[in-house]
Amino acid sequence: MPISNLVRIPSTPPVILPLPSDTKPIQWSVMIPVYNGLAYLAQTLLSVLSQDFGPDLMQIEVVDDCSTEGDVAEIVEMVGKGRVGYYKQPVNVGNIRNFETCINRSRGEYIHILHGDDYVKPGFYNAITQLFIDFPEAGAACTDWRAVNDHGNFIWSNEPVGDERGILKNWHQRIAIRQYLEPPAKVVKRSVYEDLGSFYLVSCAEDWLMWNRIAAKYPVAYHPEVLAKYRNHEQNITSASFKNRKNFLDIYKTMLYNIAHLPEHLRAASEKASRKNFSFYFANLAHQQWHANHDKEEALIVAKDALTFQVNTYSVKQYLKLLFKIAIGYKSKTG
C-alpha cells in the first residue's frame, strides 16, 4: 500500500524490509527529512557535505514532505550541486511516515536521520564510524549535543549523555526516565530498524520512544564530544504543540510505555523519577510560555500538565507563582 494511503501515526511499528538483493549496500545513509523551515536547510546540507565520504560510501538525500514554503529542490540543487539526492512525497504524510520513508529509501549500514533544521559539527561521521568499529555489538551510536536557536546560538546546558567513551552504562533505565538525546546526535544501524520497525505511536516524542525500544535490546555506544546541534525554534513540531496538549499527551504516553518495558524491579522508582523530571520541566515551561506569548490559556494548560505528572512542592509553587503573575499582568521576559 502506498505510504500516502496509510494512517499518519501508526499504532504498530511499520515493517522495514531488508534491501533488495540487487541493491548495493554502502556504509552511510544521511537522510534529511524536511517540511518547511527552509531557512536552515542550507546549513544542514553544508554541515554534511563538509564531511562527505563520497558517493561510494555515503548516501545523502533530502526527503521532502510536500513543503508549502519555498522550493526545497532548488535549495538541494544549489547547495548539493548534484551530490545530494531529492525525493518528494506525493502528498503530505506527516513526520512519522516521512521518517519511515527515509529509512526505507536508505541504502547504508548506518542511518543518520538528520532533520532539516539541525546540523552536525566537523568530525561527527568519523567519530560515529569509529564507535561502530570499536564496539561492533552496538546497535546505535551517539555523540553529545547542544540546543541552539534560530541563529545557531547556544540556548541551554544539557546534562552529558554519558561519562566516558564506550557503551553507555545503565542506558535503558536512564533513557526511560528522561530524554537525554536529541535526533541529530544519534545514528542507528539499518539492521536495527529492520528488526524493530520504524517510528510509531506518537508524533512529538517519537525519538524518545525509539531510543527506548533500541535500548531495551541493543547496546548504545557514545562519544563524549559535542558534535551535533539541535535547533529549537517556533516552527518546529515541539514548540507548536503545547496549547493543544499534543506535546504533553505524547510525552505522557511515551513515559508509560518506557516504564512498562523496563525490568519489573526498576519500574516503580523509574516512574517516580520520570514524573518528577517532567513535572519540573512543565512547571518551568509554563512560565517560559507566559513570558514569550502572554497567553493565559496556554500557560495555565502547561502548568496544570506539570501537576498531572506529579504534585510536588516545586510544581505547586510554580503554579501559584504563575497565577500571581497573570493576576498582576507581570510579563517581563526575565521575571
Condensed summary:
The protein is α/β, with parallel strands linked by helices and about 325 residues long. It has helices spanning about 40-50, 70-80, 95-105, 125-135, 170-175, 190-195, 205-215, 245-260, 265-295, 295-310, 315-330; strands spanning about 25-35, 60-65, 85-90, 110-115, 120, 140-150, 165, 185-190, 220-230. It folds into 2 domains: about 25-230, Spore Coat Polysaccharide Biosynthesis Protein SpsA, Chain A, CATH 3.90.550; about 265-330.
What does this structure look like?
With about 325 residues, this protein is of the alpha/beta class. It has two domains: about 25-230, Spore Coat Polysaccharide Biosynthesis Protein SpsA, Chain A (Alpha-Beta Complex), CATH 3.90.550.10; about 265-330. It is built from eleven helices and nine strands. Strands 1, 2, 3, 4, 5, 6, 7, 8 and 9 form a nine-stranded mixed sheet that branches.
Main features:
335 residues, alpha/beta, Spore Coat Polysaccharide Biosynthesis Protein SpsA, Chain A, nine-stranded mixed β-sheet, 11 helices, 9 strands
Largest sheet: 9 strands, mixed
Whole-number tally of structural domains: 2
Query: What share of the residues does DSSP label as strand, in percent?
Result: 15-25%
Give the CA-CA distance, first to last residue: 53 Å
CATH architecture assignment name of the largest domain: Alpha-Beta Complex
Helix content: 40-55%
Output the CATH topology of the largest domain. Answer: Spore Coat Polysaccharide Biosynthesis Protein SpsA, Chain A
In the predicted model, the low-confidence regions spanning at least 5 consecutive residues are none
Alpha carbon gyration radius: 20 Å
What global shape is seen?
globular
CATH superfamily of the largest domain: Spore Coat Polysaccharide Biosynthesis Protein SpsA, Chain A
Order of helices and strands: EHEHEHEEHEEHEHHEHHHH
Query: What's the total helix number?
Result: 11
